# Entry
Amino acid sequence: MTVTVSRKAHFNAAHRLFRSDWDDAKNEEVFGKCNNPFYHGHNYDLIVHVTGEIDKKTGYVMDMKVLKDIIKAEIEDAFDHKNLNEQVPEFKDLIPTAENIAVVIWEKLRPHISSDKKLEVTLYETPRNYVVYKG
Ligand code: NI
# Structure
């Protein structure tokens, strides 16, 4: 039987969406409030979904304590209370939109989840705006 188990996590982080090869007017037009040169924060809610067969011995798809610890080490410790543009190396040359953040999170988690399981990431940037990345 294939089951999906999910773990919620949270981090606060600051970002700015802009392209240095565009002028101020173009950045303002495309990115709006998220182009604020002084940065601004979001309360990101992350849901990590792992899908796989139930292990007959444990009854688990994955030990949620293990998943919790992976998310803390790889994502929360790296992103929480950080300026994503300035302090997180993955966004040195990558615009930290919710889409790109979700892909980075997936790529950071993937090596730590056993390869026979499917990984999916849902990232809420606001309570109403969220993105999904399935790899
Ligand atoms: Ni923003």
Summary: Residues 15, 34, 40, 42 surround nickel (II) ion (CB under 6 Å). The chain has one domain: 2-133.
